[in-house]
Write the structure tokens for this entry.
Amino acid sequence: MRPSLTIAFCVTALVAAMGSSLLAEGETSAEPPWDLFEPCASATYPDQATSLYVLPYPVGVTHNVRQGNCNPFNSHNQRFKEDFAYDFEMPIGSTIVAARAGEVWLTRDHFRDDQNRLEQGNFVVILHDDGSYAMYGHLTEGGALVEKGEAVVAGQPIARSGNSGLSKGPHLHFSVKVCPEGESLRSRECESVPVTFRNTRPHPKGLIGSPASKIGGGQRYEALPFEETPPEQEGS
């Protein structure tokens, strides 16, 4: 497969099948004790209070995390360089906001929600001032609300969610990636990094998703009001 931003989308057919096969027929998923669940136990997450990121949906809205970080049974793992990605379950057409200020680097939104091959995913990519970038994936047709080169601020509506690309149900795929020096944003060498969000309840080890990527599973997080500038950056 040629190097492409399409590698950021959540699942291949094999991986999707693996995720589905975790439950036997008629079996229901028993979610773990959430206070003990640390899918990325060895990872160091940024301090939430001074995080550069807010949840990628509007204040007052709550969504569940269908798939969280470090999921060896699905697609958020090192094999796909997506260890620290999140899948937020949300109905098609839900508002997506910028999780951090930056510049729109690339958009694509011409595929329909029933076009479900890997290369048919719609997305918005936002480049940050430290060289990292955020991917907002599986958007609906015509779902990009911003254009390439446009400056955005945290909390600004940028897209509408959907079910385009290789996806087993409507959701937003969100990840932040960094690339080795000299590598382009399209490089396979770019890797996801741990992210926390300053406008929701405590999550020192990241937001917690369903280990089986169960539809309707995982923990729910409300987007709370926030200051546009993180505390550590005020006055700078």
In short: The helical segments are 13-20. The longest helix spans residues 13-20.
